[in-house]
Design goal:
Blueprint (H helix, E strand, L loop, with lengths): L3 E10 L3 E9 L7 E12 L11 E10 L19 E12 L5 E4 L7 E2 L1 E2 L8 E10 L6 E14 L2 H10 L8
Antiparallel strand pairs: 1-10, 2-9, 3-7, 3-10, 4-5, 4-9, 5-6, 5-8
Length: 175
């Protein structure tokens, strides 16, 4: 089966939380197909913004989720205990100021930063990206962030699909 790549842009302000940015929707009437996230990447599109004339650090955290997470706070964006979340990223940037404010890679690998993806997941209906950032700056300029997600289709038994539909909306399938 062919892979599918999704890419796009979403925006959120520094020192803020952005939730429920839908990047994929899938509805199957026959319940025999799901999707596996093989890889996901995040990188800044807007590098230059007015940051309040501060040099310092910025931490960006993001997750991919199989359901909306609502008004999650800073601590809930990367919560491995939440069944809806299936991939996570934390990356640091240097905030530079002085006439032409910008962020620079801070020890991340060059290029887009990869998510850590849970190998035991199936996307059965949709995929959302959630993000937060914390900065030394007291200003909160809005930045655009690029993402790319690589999905692989997977054939499923209808009973298996139903189990994943339940798990994808944060149900505890263990207890």
């Amino acid at each position: 089966m062919k892979k599918l790549s999704l890419r796009g842009v979403f925006e959120f302000a520094d020192n803020a939380v952005s939730t429920d940015n839908q990047v994929f929707i899938y509805e199957a009437n026959d319940l025999t197909r799901g999707w596996v996230v093989e890889a996901a990447y995040l990188w800044p599109k807007t590098i230059r913004v007015a940051n309040g004339n501060v040099n310092g650090q910025m931490q960006v955290s993001a997750s991919l989720a199989t359901d909306t997470v609502g008004s999650a706070g800073f601590a809930e964006i990367c919560d491995a205990g939440d069944n809806r979340q299936i991939a996570w990223i934390n990356s640091g940037y240097q905030v530079r100021s002085g006439g032409d404010d910008f962020i620079a890679n801070s020890g991340n690998p060059p290029g887009p930063v990869p998510f850590v993806v849970d190998p035991e997941h199936i996307v059965a209906n949709g995929l959302w990206i959630n993000a937060t950032s914390i900065s030394d700056s007291t200003s909160s300029p809005v930045r655009e962030w690029n993402y790319m997600v690589v999905l692989r289709p997977k054939r499923l038994d209808p009973k298996e699909t139903i189990l994943h539909l339940i798990k994808n909306v944060a149900q505890d399938v263990v207890n």
